[in-house]
Design a protein that fits this description.
The complex is a heterodimer of chains A (about 170) and B (about 850). Chain A is of the alpha+beta class. Chain A contains six helices and five strands, in the order E-E-H-E-E-E-H-H-H-H-H. The chains are: A alpha+beta (about 170), B alpha+beta (about 850).
């Protein structure tokens, strides 16, 4: 049965109507009209649907909406504001998270469908590991699949973003 | 304006506000039966079915000059992540003398486009030839108008940034056309070539010179690096994939079928009974059932998913596969040898020269190579949204596709074939009334079944009378899509004592592309032909587009007498539905052909690169192109000549390097693979790959660089990890665990080299100072025509990896995928573990 729920996404609280076991992905896409998290497998195997839950990467395709109550969800669209908060600066939110900027600078995407999860997972990694080694990056990213073969550019972009973030975005 | 998501995008992107906006009219000059297309300024709501398939000889079908001095291109090529729209904007900016920043690419839809896309690799190399002519003629037309308006002779005028300047005066393109269309047709008289005939300047279609396009030596845009126009929105979350399209009142649909398709003609998808009560508890859930076609709809997406899973259907089950996939290769040989429906045929035959050559060979190698069925496997399963009008007048379908022009007809045919009361309503609906609006899908690398999801959405929408979003689940995509073919090759190849190949005899096994519109089959509209078509893979030595070793084909690398006898497995019983997967047939062919030459080099105690060089004729244009990539890759990788496997490492983990050539879309590639191999586990990791690609003239070096990298790594995934499995009833690889692909821990670092005569450009992703304009001029002067960039490295990577494993261990692994299990099996057989 459908229930009225409140979920906090990208800093805003939204009222939604969904059965408690509805995977978060469908609520984010169909109720909040977010395009970042995407349906890939519905099995938590590929990572196209990833979002941050209190800063940690989760698979929204298998996470019941009821399980995120009271927690903060960040999607791809919310990464710039998350970065502003992490950096602790006041003023306007930047247009892009350093990871997103690096993704453009390195021209990472091919079709881009999986890149949501790539950036979300990388944001999780860089929030706890400021200067990751290549092995650390590969380990952290290993659960995310790309069919178009963009892995080398993703590795480059994460290293570039890490360098920018270590300097506070300068 | 209904507030539909796509209309908001349209109004923002293509409707130019303010004074001087062009008024739409219809040309009187169009060829009979072809209306002139709506142009880039036509509001979404004003376009009509008459705008479908426009007159391609009209400039206005391709290019619109906007009042704000920007240019809208209505080419209609779809973005698949290949960057083709960005490349097209570069071509047009070049000919028009406008800045890249002034260029806009109109969203692709059937009532606003000139071409409608096509197969991936030819978007720039062939389908963008006419628009170059259109842009050049547009520039001439605008300069003539400026001459009249300014009172300055054409010879004294020049154009930069869309501003015509001369005699101390200037005028913008945007001010010149003010409210008018070009109304100008491309003809031999005004372009030097008939529209669509291409141009020797760009080098793709030798023939009548096109006198108005720029010489390659004057290029300022083509050959330089521009960032892709689609990437920012893909990165910030605002990009709309077809999966994101929403329209008011839309219901969510899922197709219902057993998990995993059966063999050809025995789909195992006949519902014997359906218990509609089994989903009564799901709010608003509804079953759509026509013949063997079963789908469910519900207002909420998760309800539709649950309804599809919960609906009780008893399916007919047959054992359509004579053998499960574990016995495939032995079955394939027996089936090919005994197939009387499709008898063996010679696809190439140099006659007695083959026997004479082999008889005189100093060394011969005889071996069998096997390359597995691969899947398309996009990360996002197929999706479509359809809004079919219950009154039979037409509808709108939101699709992913490489090419959209065939979709209106396919949808109309499918709907008209429905039983009454639905079908008769659409029997005489003009195909063009089914408006097709394109949005990108995920990971598009060939045909697959993306067209069927459009038909499924349209059928469900027509039956329930409401807009529908049809989304495949993961098991639909893995288990019911088409596949890339599996092939087996027996070969004997010989060389003389100097290392010259003197003959080869090939025996090949496998199927041809074979498929059926499974959706229309389920609907009872089409059936498999009683007799399967003839076919048989024609590997390496003749046949299709990827024929490197034919001595008559343009793409020949090595020249020698050969014979190819192709044996086909029965397409009915045992075969999977197959379609054109990136570089169709080429990874299979090169896995064999570039390993056997490596084996021959080893037998002769020759360095594998030196052996290949010995067999390439540098005096021909094609030979020069092949040598250029081989040189570029080996120089960049620091190749040190030695006999392969002549310096084997001790211990468990050893390293090696191998080389492989390959071609597709007439472009040449060489790859040097550096690998690390664990002898104990059989695990092989590509540590670094160096790829050199020659695509003649390079339009966008960054676009080509990304394609080289992606095609190589996807090919690596296919060769290392991918194989479709089935039991006697149906396909059993239904997710990313049962059908793994390459992951981060196995991803190589790469060096990407774009090759021009005497000039090797290392492409660093994102480096906007990359400039190959000089190399492009050299390439043009050498007769290196522009060729396709979407696929070639896919052909070369498998053999480069297998050759590197041999160098590391002294063991040949002649069967894909090169998984730890297969590699370990080869090690055990060779006795090294």
């Amino acid at each position: 049965m459908a229930s009225k729920l409140k979920i906090k996404v990208n800093g805003l609280v939204h009222g939604v109507t969904a059965s408690l076991d509805t995977p978060l992905l469908y609520v984010l896409h169909n109720e909040l009209h977010l395009h970042g998290p995407r349906f890939g497998c519905g099995l938590a195997q590929c990572g196209a649907c990833s979002v941050l839950l209190d800063g940690k990467e989760i698979r929204s395709c298998v996470t019941p909406v009821a399980a995120v109550s009271g927690k903060a969800i960040t999607t791809l669209e919310g990464l710039p504001a998350l970065w502003a908060k992490e950096r602790g600066t006041s003023g306007a939110t930047p247009a892009l998270h350093p990871l997103q900027q690096a993704w453009i600078d390195v021209q990472v995407p091919h079709c881009g469908y999986c890149q949501n999860g790539m950036m979300i997972q990388a944001a999780d990694l860089l929030s706890t590991t400021k200067n990751p080694t290549e092995d650390q990056i590969r380990t952290a990213m290993n659960g995310h699949l790309c069919r178009c073969g963009t892995y080398p550019r993703i590795l480059t972009a994460i290293k570039q973003a890490a360098a920018v973030m270590a300097k506070g975005g300068k | 304006m209904t507030g539909f998501l796509h209309e908001k995008e349209y109004s923002r992107k293509t409707f130019v506000k303010g004074g001087g906006a062009l008024i739409v009219g219809f040309s009187m000059f169009g060829a009979a039966g072809n209306a002139m297309a709506a142009n880039g300024n036509t509001p979404f709501s004003k376009r009509t079915p008459a705008d479908f398939l426009p007159d391609q000889t009209q400039i206005d079908s391709w290019i619109t000059i906007n009042a704000d001095n920007t240019v809208t291109v209505t080419h209609g090529e779809t973005e698949l992540g290949h960057g083709t729209p960005t490349g097209i904007l570069m071509l047009v900016a070049e000919e028009l003398n406008v800045n890249f920043s002034q260029m806009k690419f109109a969203h692709v839809e059937s009532w606003l486009q000139a071409v409608g896309g096509g197969s991936g690799s030819s978007g720039i190399s062939s389908r963008s030839q006419t628009i170059r002519t259109a842009a050049a003629l547009a520039k001439n037309t605008l300069v003539n108008m400026a001459s009249q308006q300014l009172g300055v002779p054409v010879s004294a005028l020049s154009v930069d940034g869309g501003v015509v300047t001369g005699g101390g005066k200037s005028v913008k393109y945007g001010d010149l056309l003010g409210g008018k269309l070009f109304m100008t047709q491309m003809t031999t008289a005004n372009t030097g070539a008939a529209a669509g005939s291409g141009s020797t300047q760009f080098g793709t279609t030798p023939g009548t010179p096109n006198t108005i396009v720029k010489p390659v030596s004057q290029y300022k845009v083509v050959g330089k690096a521009f960032p892709r126009i689609d990437i920012p929105a893909k990165v910030n979350g605002t990009y709309t994939y077809v999966h994101n399209v929403r329209i008011p009142g839309m219901l969510h649909a899922r197709i219902v079928r057993p998990r995993g398709a059966g063999a050809n003609t025995v789909e195992n998808a006949k519902p014997l009974s359906i218990d509609e009560n089994s989903i009564k508890n799901i709010p608003g859930a509804q079953v759509v059932h026509v013949n063997d076609f079963v789908a469910v709809v519900a207002p909420k997406e998760y309800d539709a998913i649950q309804a599809a899973a919960q609906l009780k259907v008893t399916w007919e089950t047959k054992q359509g596969f004579p053998q499960p996939s574990g016995n495939f290769w032995s079955w394939l040989r027996q089936a090919g040898d005994t197939n009387t429906t499709n008898p063996p045929r010679f696809t190439a035959d140099s006659g007695p020269a083959v026997e004479a050559g082999l008889a005189g060979a100093a060394k011969t190698v005889t071996a069998t190579y096997k390359y597995q069925y691969n899947g398309f496997m996009p990360i996002g399963p197929h999706c479509a949204v359809a809004d079919i009008k219950p009154d039979g007048s037409g509808g709108t379908i939101y699709v992913q596709a490489q090419a959209i022009n065939g979709i209106p007809g396919a949808v109309q045919t499918t709907l008209a074939g429905l039983p009454a009361p639905y079908g008769p309503k659409y029997a005489s609906t003009p195909a063009a009334n089914f408006r097709v609006i394109w949005y990108e899908g995920a990971s598009s690398f060939g045909g697959g079944m993306s067209g069927e999801v459009n038909e499924q959405a349209a059928v469900v929408s027509a039956v329930i009378g409401k807009p529908v979003r049809m989304q495949w689940m993961r098991w639909d995509q893995h288990g019911w899509d088409m596949y890339g073919m599996a092939n087996m090759f027996d070969v004997t190849m010989g060389a003389d004592a100097t290392g010259k190949i003197v003959g080869a005899n090939w025996q090949t096994y496998g199927q041809v592309q074979s498929n059926i519109d499974e959706t229309r089959r389920a609907l009872g509209q089409v059936t498999w032909p009683a007799t399967p078509g003839n076919g048989g893979i024609a590997p390496s030595d003749g046949g299709s587009t990827a024929t490197p070793y034919s001595n008559t084909n343009y793409t020949a690398a090595y020249v020698y007498p050969r014979r190819v006898n192709a044996k086909t497995q029965p397409l009915y019983g045992g075969a999977l539905k197959c379609n054109f997967l990136r570089a169709p047939s080429a990874p299979q062919q090169y896995f064999a052909s570039e390993q056997v030459v490596d084996e021959l080099a080893h037998a002769l105690n020759m360095d594998p690169v030196a052996f290949r060089r010995k067999n390439i004729d540098p005096s021909t244009t094609i030979g020069a192109r092949w040598l250029a990539v081989l040189d570029a890759a080996t120089i960049a990788a620091g190749w040190k000549p030695k006999v392969a496997a002549s310096n084997l490492g001790k211990g468990d983990v050893v390293t090696g390097r191998g080389v492989g050539l390959g071609t597709f879309a007439s472009s040449q590639v060489a790859i040097v693979a550096d690998v690390q191999v664990s002898k104990k586990t059989g695990r092989v990791v590509a540590k670094h790959l160096t790829v050199a690609q020659n695509n003649g003239i390079t339009n966008g070096p960054q676009l080509v660089g990304n394609q080289m990298s992606g095609a190589m790594i996807q090919g690596l995934s296919r060769a290392m990890w991918e194989a479709v499995s089935w039991n006697k009833e149906r396909v059993t690889t239904l997710d990313w665990v049962s059908y793994p692909i390459l992951r981060f821990k196995d991803a190589p670092s790469v060096t990407l080299i774009n090759v021009h005569p005497g000039e090797y450009t290392v492409v660093v992703p994102g480096a906007l100072d990359t400039d190959v304009t000089k190399g492009n001029t050299e390439a043009f002067n050498e007769g290196w025509v522009l060729t396709g960039s979407g696929e070639p490295p896919t052909a070369a990577i498998g053999s480069a990896m297998a050759n590197a494993i041999f160098d590391a261990t002294g063991v040949r692994v002649r069967q894909s995928p090169l998984t730890p299990a297969n590699v370990r099996a080869a090690f055990k057989q060779a006795g090294i573990i």
